[in-house]
Design goal:
29% helix, 17 helices, 31 strands, 7-stranded mixed beta sheet, 5-stranded mixed beta sheet, alpha+beta
Length: 589
Amino acid sequence: VATMMLVLWGQRTARAFTFSALRTVTSSIHSQRTVTASVIGGNYRRHASTSLSASTTSTTDSTDETAAASQTGTQQQQHQQQPLPDMDEIVSLCKRRGIIFPSSEIYNGYAGFFDYGPLGAELKKNLKDAWWKYFVTQREDVVGLDSSIIHNPTTWKSSGHLDGFSDPMVDCKETKLRFRADQIFFSPILLEDDGDDAKPVGYVCVQEANDEDMVKAAKKQAKKILKEKDLKGSKIQAFLFREVVEATEEEMSLIPSPASGKPTLTMPRDFNLMFETRVGATVDTDNVAYLRPETAQGIFINFKNVLGSSRQKIPFGIAQMGKAFRNEITPRNFIFRSREFEQMEVEYFIPPGDDVWPEFHRQWIDSSKSFLLDVVGLREDLMGWDIHQGDKLAHYAQACTDITFKFPFGEQELMGIAARGNYDLSQHTDGSGKNLEYFDEETKEKYIPHCIEPSLGVDRLMLAVICSAYAEDEVGGEKRNLLKFSPRIAPIKAVVLPLLKNKGELVSVARDLFEKLQKRYNVMYDSAGAIGRRYRRADEVGIPFCITVDFETVEQDAGVTIRDRDTTEQIRLPIDEVIPYLSKAIDGY
């Protein structure tokens, strides 16, 4: 298989870095980068990615849980080699287990909106609580805020959203379907025999997906086009995908629509993503308002209020989590890109200066990495970096680094850490006429603070967590499906199981323990079915610990057994030691 490097015009290919290597490049973020992609055996790769972990571990269960418990050394490591499930499996799992449902399903749903079921609501709450605790409660230099969803419309004029918050859009003139122009890709079809002088014999156009699926769809289109041109059986060169937004007018007249298969696409044009609403009893242009497309602006317009009431001094941060709304042209990939979503953001205000922001930026990158890996428990081998440069960097930003995740549909942004300069506070100073300067008592200087913004979508994080946790193994010769949620974020922390449901002495002890645990954690009681089947039910919804009350518990005062979900290892503990054990395993203390 031949490997070659191609220099592309596109902005979507990103060089990925390991977490350890990122520290060495943070200070040189402005350096020029050549955007490259590798073509391996005709499979174009838009993300030449390097995973964040080089170590992988293959784990297997022995033929029964007792034997498995003696061979758990490798199982205690992250399941790095588990293959990613496809999106159909994820969507089916989420609906079947009460994690996520399509919104308004009895009315055939509503594109871009989702409802969180019993397990999903609990998991989502745990993720938000973990973020708030890590970035707000456990820090002395960050305070919280909960601003309104609807702001004075001038807010969005000042921030630039009213005029510039848009995505490029194309329409299929035949099917009337609409696409984001930066999410569909085209490539010329070049014959292999023509070599470097090859001219296109046609074009293919596919929607954004993982590399394998894009190439597969492109080959299918190319085969049809070659047949139409009496070139059936001709070998073609590797596809050179570019975003449709980069196509010339001449190319657009030849590029087929993904919907019709014919060149029926319009030229790209901007589409504003903000949802309009009306405030007040009358309906006219004077009472137009907007649902916020991000939570950040609520922080900026409250900068002075928080500064004056919290006794904070720069550097300090303001954190907010809450709903945001974007009228996405083509919501897709389940909850990854939806029209109603939640954000968790910090605006960390710092002094100005080109020698100041790089260190703060690096600190927040390190903190973000620690949160995602150590607190949330994402798989390190599925994560990477994308450092924005050139045209990909926002005009006001000094730097931006994305933490990426390898979803089933390809590697995409999960969390962004941006050095935004003083753009936002300056814009709101001009727009409102209010002075948003900060007086530094130590240097006796006045300045408009700059800020670092770590931003994370709750829904994207949910999807990444589910993809990371999804696992299959074999226990006792039987296939087992499980969700390896970190105990800290698992929606149900433990399940209490009386060995038999018709033995009053077992049930009494089990119910008493269950009710005590309820005061501290979200736990479940399950007495129906064989004990092995109850273990499997718990594994499938990601419950980390199964606590069994058996006859030894009541007859010999021998305590209860606690079974670990990932290793299937069981230990026996006195009942009064169960809560300290769970506290250590779940809370870390």
